[in-house]
Every structure is written in C-alpha cells, then in structure tokens.
Sequence to fold (343 residues):
Amino acid sequence: MIISMRLHAPQAEIDQVCDRIREFGYKVHSIQGEERVVIGAVGVGDVTACLESLEAMPGVEKAMRISAPYKFVSREFRKEKSRIRVNGHDIGGDEFIMMAGPCSVESEAQIMETAEAVSRSGAQMLRGGAFKPRTSPYDFQGMEVEGLKLLRQAGQATGLGIITEIMSDRDAELVAEYADVLQVGARNMQNFALLKTLGGCGKPVLLKRGMSSTIRELLMSAEYVVAHGNPNVILCERGIRTFETETRNTCDITAVAVLNELTHLPVVLDPSHATGRRSLVPALSRAAVAIGADGLLVEVHPHPEKAVSDGAQSLTCEQFDGMMRDLKPLIALWKAGRPGFRC
Ligand code: PEP
Ligand code: MN
Fold:
C-alpha cells in the first residue's frame, strides 16, 4: 500500500497514520518529499480494512493498493510522467534530451572540443566517464577527480549539464559535487549499497539496465533509489546479452515501450553500447525517437580512432552533427505527440 499525505501535513498526523498502519500488522516506510510525505506499507494484513481506515484519517490524501512489486516507480502510483529538471531542461518533459560525449574523459583538449561540438549540434548534456568500469584491471580506469574537474570546466564553458558514472557509494559526495546527473552503469545496476546511498545524494540518477537484467529487476533497482528518498531517477536501456554476436549487445528496443507502460520514470536509450558499432547508432537513434524514448545517451569523440575506450562505437563530432540534423523532423513529430512518437 502507498499512502500519500496532504501537502504539508503536520508531523502529528503522519505519526498517527504510521501507528495505524502498524496496528494492522504492516511495516512502515516513509519518504519525505519536498512538499509531502508518502508512506509505504509492506507486509501481510487485511489490506481492504487498512485502506478504509487510513482514508478516513486526517492528513491522508490518498491510500491505495499497488499490485506491482515496485511501488513508487509504478504507473499505478503515478499516472502522469515524471519530469526531472536538470540544468534548465526537463527530462521526461516536452523536450527530447540529447546527452552526448566521450566514453571516457581523456584530456582537457578532448573534453573541451567534444563539449563545444555537441553543444553546437544541439545537445543539452555532456556525458563522460571519470570513473570507468573496465573488464580488465590493466585497462584505463578513468581520470577520476581530474576528470570530474574537466567535466565541470567543459560544462561551465558551454552551459551543458554534466552526466558521469559513479561506481562506488564511497564516491557519492564527490561525484555529486561535480555532476548534474549521476550515472549508474550496467555493471552496478544491482549494487544495492550504491543504490541506497544514491537515495540521499541530492542529484538525479540515470540507472542503466544491467546486461543480464530483466525489466522488472531494473524497476526494482529504481525502486531502491526512490524508496531511499530520491524520486529523480531516469532509466536507460543499453542493450542486453543474447546469443547474437553481430552487435556488442542486443538492443531491447521494446523495453522502452514496456517501461513507458509500467513506470512514470523517464526512459532514455543508449544506442552506442546497445550496438557497439558507430554505423548502427543513427538507425537505432531514429528507432528510439519513434518508440517514445525521452532522450538519447550517445558516445561522441573528436578522434574515435585514438579513444582509450569504446572508439568503435563513438561517433565523430561531424557524424553526431549529421545525426542531429537527420533526427530533427522525427523529433518534431515526437514533440507534436504523434501516435507512436510519444507514450
Ligand atoms: C558507459 O556509459 O560508458 C558505460 C560503461 O556503459 P554501460 O554501463 O552501459 O556498459
Ligand atoms: Mn562506453
């Protein structure tokens, strides 16, 4: 059950509601939002009687049963799409959001050149990894704090918002100081200690689908962040592992539409990791717009042949610019809310 309290309900009313829930044998989990408290009740008990009793209590706006195992992120809990404000743009709103940049931050020249290029092409956000999850411990691990500083410098110079990966709960304060959105990579989608910490990090989180994770598991991970106090979660489909070897991963494009049915959270697509090949990125990006994604996370590098990571799937700045021009008419249809373009 979820119990939504009225705006600015006094603490005494909240306490009474929590006591009543406990009397019915449920455990209480309350979330202090900016304006209102939402209380989650989990356990086994007489749901109908409990809901009836709660609805009659002072301070209660709405008490409802939610059948999905993920509660706060479900469409049952919230019908309208969540909008997440980042650096003057609404993700999940009326603007199709482009997040673009290199896989890894490599140098001042590289990140500045990329930031200026993607900004000119119309991107709203700059991506770049400062902490890199690499399969081999001998591969480049990221510039860490130096990388974060360069991202901030590039963001300030261009006005782009910054999204960068966080790999450990120990880095939460540090990364939150420099980034507008904290990215949880596919390999950390079920790092529950990290997810819990991000519930209190004060910044929006972009949660990537694990390469062997179901849609339901992705939503349960998002629920961790929200249940720990942070409602600002963006989901990202980035391809999953299948028997297919032509592409780095198999893009579950349908996941975007499925997620749009199941959750109110914004959903973006990463066509770079989903394919592993730059030649496929524009086609998949078109598909993402058409199926109703809220944005794209795309790898772009001024010299992909010299990139320290993911060069093969990175667009050059010129290719990104061309793709942005080609996407314009599709994004216009998306904005107009044509069936199939918006959920
Ligand atoms: C990345 O965005 O560079 C990355 C490592 O992505 P993923 O976690 O999807 O593999
Ligand atoms: Mn990458």
The chain has two domains: 2-64, 84-341. The radius of gyration is 21 Å. Residues 237 and 326 are 22 Å apart (CA to CA). Residues 2-64 form a domain with the Alpha-Beta Plaits fold (CATH 3.30.70.1140).
